């Protein structure tokens, strides 16, 4: 097992390197970089994600000024002092060749040094730590809620396969999976948070109330979970549907195997067979889905939900950084997301061997 873990750790290093390299290469051609963003702000313009630089290149790839006097490769920079443009390039580290910046980025990230945000005047790591509690709250509670509901429901559907219960729950699950989470969130706001129906018994924004600090301990816990109801419901609907069907199909495959028939012939009770024999084998594939479920809930799955409910977490931070061309934050988020995803997959593989010692990863090449 030690050699397998070592191979996976080495593979992680090359995977992270590949992700950063591809992202850095793409960033060379992304229009509307940080320098042009500052120029647009100085001129009172709203620089969106689709704005383009004259000449077709991005800030990172074409940061050098044109040779003409007062000219510049940045849109809207005509007439600005060339020294001012160069000072901006130096501030953002764009005054150096791309290969030098690439090597420096890899060296810094190997030491978990992500630099400072371009526009927030704060260390990127400190900024991520500041936003982390919101994403942790959403990710952990969504994953816990999904598994607590989906696994028992999936088992019951497998046991009662083909019955009316299985049919109508499957229909409900398919509908839940088809409805986007952000639509559920908007509907929840309209219906339960003071929308068109004037029912405002659920909060519409934030994870806590304005008077949170003055509440008692029990009041704080109640207020916190009160704010979580709508975001969690909107986020967990599709994950709940996927995990339920995955659990059902996994249990159905195991129930039809020969060892289950043998156990029944020996006179074992159905619950003994189901939870003493089938459960352990059927849960392997469910455990395999845990990393993707958790990482999705922790980061990407919460993006639109954070925006709708004004939750200042990592999902919203990533979106704002991409639109605002805050490259240190974008690259740091990508690095951390990828690293945590790879670690979660490794932990999942190790959990396989803990649940079923028959599984041996030593014989695998990767």
Automatic annotation (TrEMBL):
InterPro entries: MetI-like, MetI-like_sf. Its main location: membrane. It holds the Pfam family BPD_transp_1. The gene is yejB. Keywords: Cell membrane, Membrane, Transmembrane, Transmembrane helix, Transport. It is found in: Cell membrane. Residues 132-348 form the ABC transmembrane type-1 domain. CDD domains: TM_PBP2. The chain crosses the membrane at residues 9-30, 134-155, 167-194, 224-247, 282-309, 329-355. It comes from the Bacteria. This is Microcin C ABC transporter permease YejB. It is a multi-pass membrane protein. Belongs to the binding-protein-dependent transport system permease family. It comes from Hohaiivirga grylli.
């Amino acid at each position: 097992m030690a050699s397998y873990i070592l191979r996976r750790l080495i593979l992680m290093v090359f995977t992270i390197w590949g992700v950063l390299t591809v992202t850095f290469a793409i960033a060379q051609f992304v229009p509307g970089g940080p320098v042009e963003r500052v120029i647009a702000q100085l001129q009172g313009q709203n620089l969106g994600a689709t704005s383009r630089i004259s000449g077709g290149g991005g800030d990172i790839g074409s940061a050098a000024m044109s040779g003409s006097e007062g000219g510049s490769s940045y849109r809207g920079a005509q007439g600005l002092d060339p020294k001012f443009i160069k000072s901006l390039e130096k501030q953002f580290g764009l005054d150096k060749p791309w290969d030098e910046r690439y090597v420096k980025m890899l060296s810094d990230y190997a030491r978990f040094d992500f630099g400072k945000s371009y526009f927030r005047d704060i260390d990127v790591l400190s900024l991520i730590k500041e936003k982390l509690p919101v994403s942790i709250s959403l990710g952990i509670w969504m994953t816990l809620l999904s598994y607590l509901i989906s696994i028992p429901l999936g088992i019951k559907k497998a046991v009662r396969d083909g019955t009316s219960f299985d049919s109508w729950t499957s229909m409900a699950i398919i509908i839940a999976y088809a409805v986007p989470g952000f639509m559920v969130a908007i509907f929840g706001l309209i219906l339960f948070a003071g929308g068109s129906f004037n029912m405002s018994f659920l909060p519409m924004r934030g994870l806590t109330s304005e008077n949170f600090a003055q509440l008692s301990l029990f009041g704080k816990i109640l207020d916190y979970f009160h704010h979580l109801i709508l975001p969690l419901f909107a986020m967990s609907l599709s994950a709940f549907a996927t995990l339920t069907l995955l659990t059902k199909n996994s249990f159905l495959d195991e129930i039809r195997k020969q060892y289950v028939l043998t156990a029944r012939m020996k006179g074992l009770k159905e619950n003994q067979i189901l939870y003493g024999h089938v459960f352990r084998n059927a849960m392997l594939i469910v455990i395999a889905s845990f990393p993707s479920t958790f990482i999705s809930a922790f980061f990407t799955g919460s993006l639109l939900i954070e925006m709708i409910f004004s939750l200042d977490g990592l999902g919203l931070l990533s979106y704002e950084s991409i639109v605002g061309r805050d490259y240190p934050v974008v690259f740091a988020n990508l690095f951390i997301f990828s690293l945590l995803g790879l670690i979660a997959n490794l932990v999942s593989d190790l959990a396989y061997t803990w649940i079923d010692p028959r599984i041996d990863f030593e014989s695998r090449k990767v």
